[in-house]
TrEMBL record:
Residues 1-98 form the 2Fe-2S ferredoxin-type domain. This is 2Fe-2S iron-sulfur cluster-binding protein. Coiled coil: none annotated. It comes from Paradesertivirga mongoliensis.
Length: 98
């Protein structure tokens, strides 16, 4: 589920349809000003909040540089750095306006 300003959207995909969560959200929902660097991990416009306790793929160097440690600790991630795999099945994310 994707939460955009309180509206909830259910998204489905299959393996290898999208290279990351940002591309899935961008293609299916097209939020305004989302994913400006098209997945380079540098613009920060794909910032999302992950529900507590969910373990996803670890941060890469670009994400670690773009986000501060404090943001990472609060469960904020860059959707472009989250892989589409079994770990995101059934999770809810909230898009954070830049
Ligand atoms: S699309 Fe730019 S940081 Fe994710």
């Amino acid at each position: 589920m994707v939460n955009i300003e309180g509206a909830m959207y259910h998204l489905e995909t299959y393996p290898n349809e999208y290279r990351n969560l940002m591309m899935l959200i961008y293609d299916k929902l097209g939020p305004e000003d989302f994913g400006d660097c098209l997945g380079m991990g540098k613009c920060g416009t794909c910032l999302i909040e992950i529900e507590p306790g969910i373990q996803l793929n670890s941060f890469d160097r670009n994400e670690d540089t773009t986000l501060t440690k404090a943001k990472l600790d609060k469960g904020l991630r860059l959707a472009c750095q989250i892989l589409i795999d079994e770990h995101i099945n059934g999770i809810t994310v909230k898009i954070i306006s830049p």
